[in-house]
Structures are given as C-alpha cells and as structure tokens.
Design a protein that fits this description.
By secondary structure, this protein is mainly alpha-helical. About 70% of the residues lie in helices and about 0% in strands. Helix 12 runs antiparallel to helix 13 (about 180-190). The protein has 13 helices and no strands. The protein starts with a helix and ends in a 13-residue tail after the last helix.
C-alpha cells in the first residue's frame, strides 16, 4: 500500500493530496470516518484517482467483510468497484465472495472485470469461474482482466467444451467469435500440472 499511496500522491494536485492525507488519518483513527470519506473520494481526487484513493481508505481503516459489504451495497458503481479491488488486501477467506457473485450478475463491464481480480480468482468455485470467463467474452471484457487465467484454465476440459459451444452458437448466428476466445481455448489445451482448486470437481 505505501507504493500505491506514493504513486497516487504523485498524480494529485496539492489540495487533493492534503485531503487524502487527512482522510487516511481519519479512516485509521478511533472515529473511523470511513463512510463519508469513501463516498466523497471521487469529488475530492477526481474520477481517475478515486479507485486508488478508496482502496487506500479501506486499507487504512482495516475494513472487514461487514464494512466492505455495507459500502458495496450502498455504493455507486464506482464505489463498488473500489471495494472489489480492495478485497484481496483485506479478506483472506471467502467471506466476501457474495460481493464478487453480485458483481458478476451485473452488466457493468467494469464491475465484472474487478470481480475477476485476485480475490475472485482465489475463491470462485470452478463452475462459477467458467461462467464468468464466458461472460467476459460475451460482454467484451478483455480476458487480460481475469486474474490467474492461465493457471485456472490450464487443462480445463469443461471450459474448453463451453468455449466450443459458445463459438458454435456465435457462428451459427452469423456473429463474430471474439479473438479472446481462441486465447482462452489455447490455455485449456495445456496439460501441465496445476494446483487443485476448491470445489473444482
């Protein structure tokens, strides 16, 4: 987090840096003024920096699953995305997996991409993860957004079958097959050994 804070501070004008310093101190303090500062980050730092500022605020507050869930559910799409980005830094187990699942049910491509970051890669069961990859292809989310894609796709015959069915359906409908589909399909053809994933059966 110090590196993220340094990079963000270098991008911000002086008033925004001052706000960020004060907001992080408040988020870490006994009063934990997290909700207000989290909500106003976009206005204070600008939309391009707000994600990073919100992740830093959540980390400074040591936000746990309850706080993360509250901020996610009451937040805007941008605030929800920041919560999803913060999950791998703040939650070790699958207590926040419901937030990932909720994001994957939306049609917001930025939320879908954030849901498939390191936390989702670590905790999504194989069935749900495969469908999330298909959703990326269907909605145009670049598969580069899928954390640990090569590792999880490697040797996955079921994912290969789903990709083949998807390509056949697109072809039958006269629609273009996304180039990313062939990238993922090539990964499934690799048979190198990989760690077993929970519920991957």
């Amino acid at each position: 987090m110090p590196e993220l804070r340094a990079r963000l501070a270098a991008r911000l004008p002086a008033p925004a840096r001052d706000w960020l310093d004060a907001a992080l101190a408040e988020a870490a303090g006994p009063e934990k003024q997290l909700d207000i500062r989290f909500a106003e980050a976009g206005r204070r730092t600008g939309p391009d920096a707000a994600d990073d500022a919100r992740v830093l605020l959540l980390h400074a507050a040591g936000a746990g699953p309850d706080a993360l869930g509250r901020l996610y559910r009451q937040g805007t799409a941008a605030e929800r995305r920041a919560v999803l980005r913060a999950l791998p830094h703040l939650v070790d187990g699958d207590e926040a997996l419901d937030l990932v699942e909720d994001a994957l049910r939306t049609n917001d491509t930025r939320l879908v991409a954030a849901a498939l970051g390191p936390y989702g890669a670590r905790h999504l069961p194989a069935h749900d993860w495969r469908h999330a990859v298909l959703k990326c292809l269907f909605t145009g989310v670049p598969v580069d957004a899928v954390s640990r894609l090569a590792e999880r796709a490697r040797g996955d015959a079921e994912l290969a079958r789903m990709l083949g069915d998807f390509a056949a359906e697109r072809g039958a409908a006269g629609r273009t097959v996304p180039p990313d589909l062939y990238r993922v399909l090539a990964l499934t053809e690799s048979q190198q050994a990989r760690p077993a994933h929970p519920e991957e059966s």
